[in-house]
Amino acid sequence: MFDGLEVLENADLKNYCTFKIGGKGTIVFPKNVVELKKVIRECKKNHNDYFILGNGSNLLFPDNNLSTILVSLKHFNKIKEVKKGKIFVEAGVNLFYLNHFLKENSLGGLEWSYGIPASMGGAVFMNAGAFGHSIFDFIESVKVLHNSKVEVLKKENINYTYRSSNIKGIILGATFNFSYCHKHKIDEKQQYFLTCRKSCQPYEQFSAGSVFKHNIDKKIIPAKLIDELGLKGTKIGGAEISKKHAGFIVNNGDAKAIDVLAIIEYIKYKTGEDLELEIIYVK
Ligand SMILES: Cc1cc2nc3c(=O)[nH]c(=O)nc-3n(C[C@H](O)[C@H](O)[C@H](O)COP(=O)(O)OP(=O)(O)OC[C@H]3O[C@@H](n4cnc5c(N)ncnc54)[C@H](O)[C@@H]3O)c2cc1C
Known about the structure:
Layout: E1 7-12, E2 24-28, H1 33-45, E3 50-53, E4 59-60, E5 69-72, E6 79-83, E7 86-90, H2 95-104, E8 107-108, H3 120-125, E9 129-130, E10 133-134, E11 139-146, E12 149-154, E13 160-161, E14 164-165, E15 170-177, E16 179-180, H4 183-200, H5 222-228, E17 235-236, E18 239-241, E19 249-251, H6 257-271, E20 280-281
Parallel strand pairs: 2-5, 3-5, 4-20
Antiparallel strand pairs: 1-2, 6-7, 7-15, 8-16, 9-10, 11-12, 11-15, 13-14, 17-18, 18-19
């Protein structure tokens, strides 16, 4: 089906997500847009669902085998400086590497994202954010593959809100604007934000970040609600509500997806709220 392309069959999905949970699945690694189009065409022809895999830092894979084909853009990994301060970043670039590049080039603005284990494509798709900033603050346009055509979407034509965007299609890359900042200042800020992150999140444990979205309308902060109910440390199988941050569920080593799903249901039951998931359960 994917003749001539890089494919991993029977891949251990736990190695492709930060939760370190999951059964087996097929992952395709197109090297360019031509190959990516071929992957999509083949999936459609064979009536196979496909799912774009970023760095897997917001995903929960099922325990059984996944029939959905995962499409990784890890080979879309280039950064190009268009002109001073304006850079084009391909979707597969991870945020650690991007932050390193920005520091080396004295470009400031994204330091708050240092430590988010995401790919740029995933961060844009989810409108990742922290410490009062979000990735869209710096975006000029997003390049996508949509209906077999490459299009450039200007920021003003994209609807992005808290932890979501309405981008249709596959994000190939994005153009960002950053401002000049002294290298050592950038370094200082990156380390500061990483330290904050490590002090309040279970950073050394396997997780997929915040499990639930804030409910802006009802002013519900799930982590606060869960904490107030004394649910930190609740365990089902190998999954546990983090003792450090009630908004995270951590995998103690041998957690199954069903353990995580059971804790999610337990939290909804205890809070009495139909909390919206931020993590994505890939089926
Ligand atoms: C320790 C930890 C800390 C975290 N801290 C934060 C935080 O501070 N702020 C925050 O916002 N999030 C945080 N997260 C969650 C997560 O990192 C973000 O949601 C991130 O944006 C996901 O990016 P990813 O590349 O891992 O995407 P994935 O998890 O692989 O995918 C997420 C979604 O994006 C889609 N997607 C990925 N790439 C593309 C693409 N190229 N085109 C179209 N769709 C695509 C996927 O199909 C999926 O729907 C944290 C997670 C962890 C584990």
